[in-house]
């Protein structure tokens, strides 16, 4: 594969992995407390909906002129990536609490235990609905990233490969540990994903507007380095501001 396609694989893998860890936490909490059959049926139904959406959206994006697609998708990825990047910077600077999958698991488990059981057609509909919505919402973000990465770079195969690798890794870890993946440095992953999405968004939006990057796809590495340097400066400034505000 070309360098640009490897970037697509890496970006798709990291972004998909973060969303899949969050979805797995919901499924594990529901399965442990309410039973696995209804929970897994909900997961399967959500995956079918996502697969249908990707199958319909992928070919449609492929017919859009490449410059227009890069400009629009680049802008969306830049907004999307900056949101993740901003949250990560606030966490690293101490202005926002770190995300804790153990705490999320406990909250989901407590909510599942409190809710009364309603069984229809052989399914626990609370477990089904909770897993369906959780997997669908997190999966929509994965599908957006995979489809846009693939369509914009004309590399849907590598983008799908990155997401598939993340899915297999998260599932294997979940089966082995049978608990939330609290040891996964999710905040670090979100920071890395925010940087990569912002870099890709900047790169593609500028290309769509007619700019030509020196070094072609290798310019993405320069953008990543630029965002990393800016992150370091912003975290230091935010920490200094927080410490100065403490009496």
From TrEMBL:
Alphabetic keyword roster: Membrane, Transmembrane, Transmembrane helix
Entry superkingdom: Bacteria
Signal sequence interval, chain numbering: none
Native source species: Allomeiothermus silvanus (strain ATCC 700542 / DSM 9946 / NBRC 106475 / NCIMB 13440 / VI-R2)
Protein name (record): GDT1 family protein
Transmembrane intervals: 6-28, 40-62, 68-85, 155-177, 189-206, 218-235
Disulfide bond in keyword set: no
């Amino acid at each position: 594969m070309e360098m640009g396609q490897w970037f697509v694989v890496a970006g798709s893998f990291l972004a998909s992995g973060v969303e899949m860890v969050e979805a797995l936490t919901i499924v594990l909490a529901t399965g442990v407390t309410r039973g696995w059959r209804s929970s897994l049926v909900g997961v399967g139904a959500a995956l079918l909906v996502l697969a249908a959406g990707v199958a319909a959206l992928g070919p449609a994006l492929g017919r859009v002129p490449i410059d227009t697609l890069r400009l629009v998708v680049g802008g969306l990825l830049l907004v999307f990536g900056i949101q993740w990047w901003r949250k990560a910077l606030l966490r690293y600077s101490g202005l926002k609490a770190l995300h804790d999958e153990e705490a999320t698991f406990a909250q989901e488990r407590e909510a599942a235990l409190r809710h009364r059981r309603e069984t229809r057609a052989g399914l626990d509909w609370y477990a089904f609905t909770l897993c369906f919505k959780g997997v669908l919402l997190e999966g929509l973000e994965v599908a957006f990233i995979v489809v846009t990465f693939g369509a914009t770079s004309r590399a849907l195969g590598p983008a799908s490969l990155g997401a598939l690798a993340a899915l297999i890794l998260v599932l294997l870890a979940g089966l082995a540990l049978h608990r939330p993946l609290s040891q996964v440095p999710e905040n670090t992953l979100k920071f890395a994903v925010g940087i990569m999405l912002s870099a890709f968004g900047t790169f593609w939006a500028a290309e769509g507007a007619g700019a030509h990057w020196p070094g072609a796809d290798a310019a993405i590495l320069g953008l990543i380095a630029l965002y990393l340097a800016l992150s370091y400066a912003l975290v230091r400034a935010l920490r200094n501001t927080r410490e100065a505000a403490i009496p």
